[in-house]
Specification:
The complex is a heterodimer of chains A (270) and B (264). Chain A is mainly α and 270 residues long. Helix content of chain A is 76%, strand content 1%.
Chain lengths: 270, 264
């Protein structure tokens, strides 16, 4: 399979996902609005918490810091919402369609990535970037070029870790057929340990520091804290290498598992 | 066939479907065990979250630690109840692919057939959240009357929310051709119910009780149990729940009438 063929196949999948989204416009708009409802709920809840607290800060966060954190978190979450590798692989395995995909002139893991990336890119451009600009303007965040570059790098790390994790769980469908339970456990860890529920610095330092070093933290907490100004640039530059290391390790595990598991893929007529 | 015997027959078929679903589910034993672990995690997360909030702040005005924990656990319980019966994505898939045809030709309620679509594994979540509720109850003062009122409000409110979602799915598809995002709407409503809905202001209060009746299933029962609303207000909300059930059921039937079969 030539590199050109592989690229064309992957690019077609990417555009197909974008066209899918544009076709159902009302669904797309309502999906955006409901997704934005989640940070809205969290922010209103924290406003109520701050209102009943005598101090102007909770942990190291002022209300303004907290709002910035949840808003930036929404942008980061777009990367995770639309990765979708778990469900794509499980559907392919359960329907037997994986066999058809494996004989196509495209690398399977990359085509799974492209399928999710089409959605992700579409929503990131449509809401992620405008929301990021609005957050920066409305909350008065001072974002230097270095911060912006580090933030982009952290989003790429989050994307790679999220995809690799999801691909690992998705690949397990070859062994277990149904991986709904494992996916639920994974998403729970990602959300809690990753800082999706609340900033990890609010936890007692002994637990918080363990969570912050985990790969889940590099999916949500680290990028959100970086852009909302919750950590210094010097600290961010040190931490980002830990994120890179996690991305490499988890991707290697995913590649190894796929190499072993794909030998077990079988279907009638093949 | 009399009304009562028809009801008995429908209940019998519904229970047979439940038994079938459970048997099918138990074929994936490993997943079943993993889901049990997940079910234990859910109430733990609620406990960690509320404890963290009260560890670093005074929480929400007017709500003690155990009261807010109770509300959050009740939200988890009603969410599980909803998920046990309704899976919006699966219903949407059936509507768009003509999958309801098989129910239309049977002398059995389509509504009850759709209620068997939910995720049976959430029973484990229910048990986890019930444990958390019991833990809170041991630390809260309440009367048996309040407990009875809580049960009535949960039943009425959850029924209203389930029928609302059904009506919404069918009518959205009827008028806008789509609706795959509706499962996110359900999640968002359940997310909002985690908190006292009074924090969302009058507008939010109205939306989350009348328009999307999740507040009737969570906030109202928790509020009567913790003594935050009077018995008169409670009675009014129960009446609103019953009205909501009636109205949303009518809307559901209208939406269902707009369904086009695969052959249609």
């Amino acid at each position: 399979m030539s590199a050109k063929n592989m690229f064309n196949g992957t690019a077609s999948l990417f555009w197909l996902m974008i066209k899918n989204n544009v076709t159902f416009r009302s669904d797309m708009i309502m999906n955006l609005l409901t997704r934005l409802g989640f940070p809205f709920i969290a922010i209103v809840a924290w406003i109520a918490i701050y209102a009943s607290t005598s101090s102007s800060s909770v942990g190291q966060f002022t209300l303004s810091n907290m709002i910035s954190y949840y808003l930036v978190l929404t942008v980061v979450e777009i990367v995770l919402w639309y990765t979708n590798a778990i469900w794509i692989v499980q559907d392919d395995v359960q329907s037997g369609f994986i066999v058809t995909k494996l004989i196509r002139p495209a690398n399977y893991p990359i085509s799974v990535f492209a399928e999710g990336f089409g959605n992700l890119a579409f929503y990131f451009v449509l809401i992620g970037i405008p929301l990021l600009i609005a957050i920066t303007y409305l909350t008065g965040l001072s974002v230097s070029l270095t911060t912006l570059l580090l933030f982009i790098a952290s989003l790429l790390i989050a994307l790679v870790i999220a995809f690799a994790f999801q691909f690992i769980i998705g690949t397990l469908a070859i062994y277990f057929t149904n991986i709904g339970g494992m996916a639920a456990v994974y998403f729970t860890f990602e959300y809690l340990i990753g800082g999706g529920l609340f900033p990890l610095t609010l936890l007692p330092s002994s637990i918080g520091s363990i969570f912050m070093s985990s790969p889940f933290a590099f999916q949500l907490y680290f990028p959100a804290m970086l852009y909302s100004g919750g950590i210094t640039l010097q600290f961010a530059m040190q931490q980002i290498w830990i994120g890179v290391a996690w991305a490499v390790i988890i991707t290697a595990v995913a590649a190894l598992l796929w190499k072993v598991a794909k030998r077990r893929v079988d279907a009638v007529g093949v | 066939m009399t009304g009562l015997s028809k009801l008995q027959q429908m209940l019998k078929i519904f229970l047979i479907r439940q038994k079938y679903d459970w048997n099918e589910l138990l074929q994936y034993r490993f997943q079943f065990i993993v889901y049990l672990a997940y079910a234990v995690l859910q109430p733990i997360i609620t406990l960690v979250f509320i404890s963290t909030i009260y560890g670093v702040s005074n929480g929400i005005a007017g709500w003690s630690y155990f009261q807010l924990l109770f509300l959050a656990a009740l939200s988890g319980l009603t969410t599980s109840l909803f998920q046990y019966f309704v899976e919006p994505q699966r219903i949407f898939n059936d509507i768009t692919r003509g999958g309801l045809d098989k129910y239309m030709t049977k002398p059995f309620s389509v509504f009850l057939s759709l209620l068997s679509y939910g995720n049976k594994l959430v029973v484990a979540n229910m048990l986890g959240n019930i444990s958390l509720l019991v833990y809170c109850m041991l630390n809260l003062q309440f009367t048996l009357l309040q407990l009875a009122l809580l049960a009535v409000a949960v039943a009425a409110g959850t029924t209203a929310f389930i029928i609302f979602m059904m009506a919404f799915i069918f009518n959205w598809h009827k008028y806008f051709t789509g609706g795959w995002w509706i499962s996110t709407l359900a999640e968002m409503a359940q997310n909002a119910a985690y908190w006292p809905i009074s924090i969302f202001g009058t507008f939010g209060y109205i939306i989350l009780t009348i328009l999307i009746p999740i507040g009737l299933a969570v906030f109202v029962p928790a509020a009567i149990f913790t003594g935050k609303i009077s018995i008169v207000t409670y009675a009014l909300f129960v009446v609103v729940s019953l009205l909501a059930i009636y109205i949303f059921h009518g809307l559901y039937r209208k939406g269902l009438a707009g369904y086009n079969s695969a052959a249609g």
